[in-house]
Design brief:
Rossmann fold; seven-stranded mixed beta sheet; three-stranded antiparallel beta sheet; 11 helices
Length: 288
C-alpha cells in the first residue's frame, strides 16, 4: 500500500478500539443472547439460501442499493497493478451482486480481466447491464451463473477451465458471511483450486460485534454468531481466528488479517454507528 493510501486506510479503519467494543458489548446484559451457546439445528437447504438471495436482488434490482466500493482500491492496491510478465491479470469476483466491487476496479485498471459469479442469473444480467453502461467496451468481462456456494458445481466446464489454476486474484467481499458456516471450508478450498500459485484472496466481511449483529433479536439466531434476516438471507459475523482457521486450513498463507473499526454518524437520527469488518489477504503458496 503506498504511503498516502496507507494513511487514508488507517484513518478510516481504526476509528475505535475493537477490544474496548468487545468489553463493552459482553458486559451489557441486554446483549447476552449473542454469547450464549447454540445447538445448531439442520440449516435450510442450499436451494433455500440461493432463492432468498435471488429474491433479495430482485427487490433491489435498480442498482442503487449498493454504492460503488471505491475504498477497496486503497485496501487492496494489488488490483491496480500489472507487470510485463503479467500484463493482463485475472480476477474472479465471487458474489458480484450488482457490480459494486467490479466497476471501480475496471475503471482503475484497464488491463485486468474480470470473471464473476453470483447465485442469481438475473443479478448477473443486471451487473452486466450496469457495467456495460458505465464502461462501454473498454474492458473484457466474463459472467457465469454460480450457485453461490460451490464454484465448481454450476460453472460450465469451459468457464471453469478458464479459471482453474490461472486466476491472480479472488475477491470475497461480503460474500462468505452469506454461506452457512459448515459449508465455508469447501468454498475456501475451491478458491484455493482456482488461484494460480502465488495468487491472492482479498477478503472483507462482517466482523464480530458489528452494529448490525447487535441489532438482531434472539429469535433470529440460527447458529453461533450466525443469524437469519426476515427475508431469509443469512449473515455470519467473523472473529479473526475463524477467518484464519478457514484459510490456513485450505492451504493459504496469511498476509494480512485485522479488524476494520469504522465510526459513522447518521446525521438524520443523530446516532453514532460503530461498524466492524474483517480485512484479510491470503496467498496460495508459490511453486518452488
Amino acid at each position: 500500500m503506498n504511503s498516502e493510501g496507507e494513511v487514508e486506510a488507517e484513518y478510516f479503519s481504526k476509528d475505535f478500539d475493537w477490544e474496548e467494543l468487545r468489553s463493552e458489548t459482553e458486559s451489557n446484559p441486554s446483549l447476552r443472547h449473542h454469547f450464549q451457546s447454540f445447538s445448531s439445528s439442520s440449516s435450510q437447504s442450499p436451494q433455500s439460501d440461493v432463492q432468498a438471495w435471488k429474491q433479495f436482488h430482485t427487490r433491489h434490482s435498480t442498482g442503487k442499493f449498493f454504492k460503488e466500493r471505491r475504498y477497496l482500491l486503497k485496501e487492496f492496491p494489488e488490483l491496480l497493478s500489472s507487470s510485463p510478465s503479467n500484463s493482463n491479470p485475472k480476477l474472479l469476483e465471487v458474489g458480484c451482486g450488482n457490480g459494486s466491487t467490479i466497476l471501480p476496479i475496471l475503471r482503475a485498471n484497464k488491463d485486468i480481466v474480470v470473471y464473476a459469479c453470483d447465485c442469481s442469473d438475473e443479478t448477473l444480467e443486471k451487473a452486466t447491464e450496469i457495467i456495460t453502461a458505465n464502461a462501454a467496451d473498454l474492458f473484457k468481462h466474463h459472467f457465469k451463473e454460480d450457485n453461490g456456494l460451490h464454484l465448481r458445481d454450476s460453472c460450465s466446464s469451459d468457464e471453469f477451465d478458464r479459471c482453474v489454476g490461472g486466476v491472480d486474484f479472488i475477491t470475497l467481499i461480503f460474500t462468505l458471511s452469506a454461506v452457512p458456516l459448515e459449508r465455508m471450508p469447501r468454498s475456501i478450498k475451491e478458491c484455493f483450486t482456482v488461484l494460480k500459485p502465488g495468487g491472492m484472496v482479498l477478503f472483507r466481511d462482517y466482523g464480530l460485534y458489528d452494529m448490525t449483529m447487535l441489532r438482531f433479536e434472539s429469535d433470529k439466531r440460527v447458529g453461533f454468531r450466525e443469524y437469519m434476516r426476515s427475508d431469509g438471507t443469512r449473515s455470519y459475523f467473523f472473529c479473526l481466528n475463524t477467518v484464519r482457521n478457514l484459510f490456513l486450513g485450505a492451504g493459504f498463507i496469511e498476509l494480512e488479517l485485522d479488524y476494520c473499526c469504522v465510526k459513522s454518524v447518521n446525521r438524520k437520527k443523530g446516532k453514532s454507528m460503530r461498524r466492524v469488518w474483517v480485512h484479510g489477504k491470503f496467498q496460495k503458496p508459490a511453486l518452488r
